[in-house]
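Our consortium's second objective concerns turning raw sequence data into structural hypotheses that experimental partners can test. To show how far this objective has progressed, the report includes one record in full. It was chosen at random from the queue rather than selected for favorable results. The single chain below, 244 residues long, was entered without modification.
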Amino acid sequence: MNLRPFALLILIASTARAGVEVDMDEFGKSLGGWKKEGGKAAEYKFSQSEYRSYKPEISRSPDGGVFISMRVDHMRGMFSSDDHASLEMSFSPEGTLLSAQAFISIQERRISSDMFRSAGKSAAGAAGQAVGGVAEKAARLGSDVFASLAGKLLRENVTEPGRVAFPAALRHNYNLLYPCVHVVKDPLKALPVEEPADTGATVPVKPAETEPPKKVAPEGMIEVSTFGEAPKEEPHKAPEPAKP
């Protein structure tokens, strides 16, 4: 059994695009461009503080949906350690926003929002419900996520302006990332590749060329080798007739 066509079919299928795609170029452009960390991050000012967003990491689920996780840093200056945060979003194969959650780490303290799904309900009270892909419902879900995060952050008695504005900076990334998630309605499909039928005909094989045997001097005689070009032989002239 010839397995090559089947292998080519699997190879083409693996390169086909999934149903949900994230436009990284569009998202990076909205943040000022992926110009930092070797083209992997964008730096910008938000609410008079400096932040750095990294390219989102995308994990595809078996059903064609995607899980998006991205990191955002609060840049506090040369002599202070940066604060870190992450934003997580899940989408169905149809591009429906299923859930969202955010986290902030400040001086070894990890603060997380509740996970929200559906129409602003927490995951515990809305299991199995989903948020429609429309922008209004996504905005409502984002409001709940970052209100939850900001409320928990204030309990930590945070006063530094860049830290207080961190939940708002995360929501800024959320608002820019959501429109960059698109649904590919006609993903590439795998096409079988057929090989030409084997007719059983044999291809004649050209015999290998052999070098002519080298001439050697007979036994008992000395072989003389010369170097350079062989001397040219003078053409043989007929003897001139005798003069009377």
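The partners drew two points from this record. The helical segments are 4-15, 24-30, 135-154, 161-164, 166-177. Residues 6-18, 119-133 have pLDDT under 50 and may be disordered. Both points have been shared with the crystallography group to help prioritize constructs.
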